[in-house]
Amino acid sequence: MNFSDSFFNRVEKKTNVNKNTILELAKKLQDSDLKNEGTLREVIHELSMMTGKEVSKEKENKIIEAVVNDNVPKDIDKLI
């Protein structure tokens, strides 16, 4: 998937996370098992720290359930 600079600019504006940090995280995630609950919790925690936004335990559980059950939108551009 090839993302344009405008995509990264929108993400950075919304999250205060720059393009290089996003790309580093994406590279790390490529080698991760995203169906593993422990891995997902680590990723959620890392994203929470990067963005400075707290994620409640309830919301964390909902995110994990959505990812494990493949209920995540495939068009990421619509999420931004």
Explain what you see.
- This protein has helices at residues 5-15, 19-30, 37-51, 57-68.
- With 80 residues, the protein is mainly α.
- The chain has one domain (5-79).
- The longest helix has 15 residues, at 37-51.
Descriptors:
single chain, 80 residues, mainly alpha, 0% strand
Tell me the helix content. Answer: 55-70%
What Rg, in angstroms, do the CA atoms define?
13 Å
Spans where pLDDT lies below 50 across 5 or more residues:
none
Annotation field: number of helices: 4
Strand content: under 5%
Number of strands: 0
Report how far apart the termini are: 16 Å
How much is the average pLDDT? 84
**Which shape, going by the Cα principal axes?**
globular
Count of all domains? 1
Give the ordered list of helices and strands: HHHH
Major beta sheet, specifics? Answer: none
Class inferred from helices and paired strands = mainly alpha
Provide a concise account of the structure shown.
By secondary structure, this protein is mainly α.
Element layout with pairings:
Layout: H1 5-15, H2 19-30, H3 37-51, H4 57-68
Helix pairs in contact: 3-4
